[in-house]
Write a structure and sequence with these properties.
By secondary structure, the chain is α+β, with helices and mostly antiparallel strands. It contains 3 helices and 3 strands. The longest helix is centred in the last third of the chain and has 14 residues.
Length: 64
Amino acid sequence: MNPNEFTQCFNLAKALDLVSASRKVNGVLYVYNAAGQAKPWDSFAAEYPLERLQAMVNRSQQAH
């Protein structure tokens, strides 16, 4: 995943309140949820690929 794809995914995840921050620890990128729980980015991205995040945002916008 290139930096642009990360930014796109992270911003979508943040808009969906799935993440609130990111941090690199010992070379591993972690994302944090609103409760402050950390998850490795690779694990998060596997669970929420870009296409899924885009679909979730689209559904959210249609609901409003």
